[in-house]
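Subject: Predicted fold for Protein argonaute, 705 residues

User T.R. writes:
Posting the sequence so we have a shared reference for the thread.
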Amino acid sequence: MQGVQVRLNRFILRSLQEEELRPGFWEVRWDPLPSRQENLFQLLGKAANRVGGVATPWQSGLVAWTAPRIQEGEVRGLSQAYRFTLRDGGALLLDPARVQEREVLSRLAQKKLEAGLKQVYGQSRRYQVEGNLILGGEIRSGNGWRIRKGSRLRARVDHTGQLVLEVEIVHRILPTLTLEAWLQGFPEPRRVRNTYENPPGRRQTWRFLRLEPELKSREVDLGGVSLFDYHAGKGRLSSEEQAGRVVRVADDSGAEFFHLTGLLEPVLTLEDLVELGLEAEAALALQIGPEERFSQAQKTARGIAERIFGVPRAEPVVAQAYLLPKPQLKAGRGQRIGKPADALRKGALKAQDATVGLLVVEGKPEWPQALRKSLQDMARASGVRLRLADPIAVARGDLRGLDLASSLDQLAQQEVAALLVQTPPLAWEERNRLKRASLQRTLPSQFFNPPLAEHKLDNILLGLASKLGWRMVGLEGEYPAEVAVGFDAGVDGSRSLRYGGAACAVTADGGLLSWILPEAQRGERIHEDVVWGMVQEVLLRFRRLAGRWPRHVLLLRDGKTQRQEFTLALEELARKEIGYDLVSVRKSSGGRVYPVEGGRLRDGLYVPLPEEEDKVSFLLLTAYPGEGRMKGTPRPLKVVHEEGPTPVEELARQIYHLSRLYPPSGYRFPSLPAPLHLADRLVREVGRVGLSSLHGLDREKLFFV
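User M.O. replies:
I've generated the structure tokens; pasting them so everyone works from the same file.
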């Protein structure tokens, strides 16, 4: 492999000092003793925040770089309050070469960083500090919103005892209106957050549920005190006019609460601005090229190093990287192609005769000529017949009425395999309702809005083909694993129902693409029985196609893997003598990769990392279209090899190549390998449309892309 050097968004500050390696230990005594249902680490974390100073949980107590300011206090648990007192336990010697001790040193470093940010920058009107986020000046504004640029910072300790600062340049789209003022001119937002801070210096974010127009703030009882008086007593309100109206919100656990529109503000994303028509060009302000982004990160790192850690320099980490060989896609009859859109002209890897329906929302029931011709060309290239059913029109106002149900029933009776839906721009709620109604009749739907430009039309056709269950493209070559399975987890729209996991499986050459979704279950962790059940289904499907078990399986977990999730699956694979590798793929913890001065980035960049968590890990830049087409700086994936015998370079090559095996996008590739990207899309879509809509749907019809 060709070797190149790159810079990371990590800056070395200094080695830890002797006294930092010997923090004080404080034993925590509880009254009463916490029950087994309590999370002791969370209680200790609350105690660390309450006592002040630079302290963090360690075993059954706290370790601290500075003496706690108070020796006793009270924290709230699941169902009751607990009193605590601290007892000085002397100094500890921590070794950064040990994983758990390195983690506690990193938490102390992060605490010192956040305390320093608040002290140094928090008092200035120029900056806004929230935990590890520091925001500077405004770079763009519009009706009801503004964009501020800043940095998200993380301090950690590496295995050699070096203090390392990670700097990520970020943008925050902030509202300029309270929720009450926002609702006077804009739709209800999906999420809201407090206008005031909660300890330790952060603002609580909520999911917006609904307005409660019949309730008054002085009438809502919160256990002996009204909603208005509760907030007024904390100094947040001075009048009922300032309070606004009563709303219902929910936290991330799904618990619901009453709140006030005058004490909330909308949480805005770029997607929200575009959907509301609020100056979509704001997106341009968020793209920063590699050289400019690195320069800004280095400037920030030097300022933090000097003003908080007393270090005059912050040296960027330079790492050795390698360029992996490029993947090669193939279409029907083994023809080589450069991108999935080429398969529309060359022919699908595998296709079958089908009937396609068209539902027109607010328009004439007729097939657009360009769409009709393109569908016929796609079928001809793939050597199959594609019958176009008679189109049906429905009024937008009837998307929850009997006319829609009748129209979908007519299409289902024509044995339609997948449905094209032509619509004007719809709200998310309308789209989800229409998708749900279609899926209940086993009709996966592909939405589109006229006019149909060439690139847009290609993506519509590829999305439709995936929903028909066609296999558009495959990978050419040999790979360590014959089957790759991606696992993700999600929640429904109300966040009250959790899915134990979801998976998509892909054979090494793209011969199988499918989805698997078990029953819903409690808990964020995927239960080991659920994982093994999904792996079994993949193995059985492979055996039906190939007449044997696969020789080797690649298991990909989105986010940090909990070993218990895969214990049973790995034991059963070993018992059957099926080889395996287990890796976790993390989208957000890889930071950034920058070229050295005068260098260039390229996809397929593989960056081995020093062992973290006592496991082999690496960064992988899977998708980068080049500086001529993209101003921004891409994020690499961070991949941790949890278990398995495959050389890490070969794992990196297969994961990189799998990122090209995503057929619904004709010209761009996702950063995640296809099994994980599909699993992520699956749980998001099911969260929107619900589990009950999927009964009887063919597992090879990718209804969620």
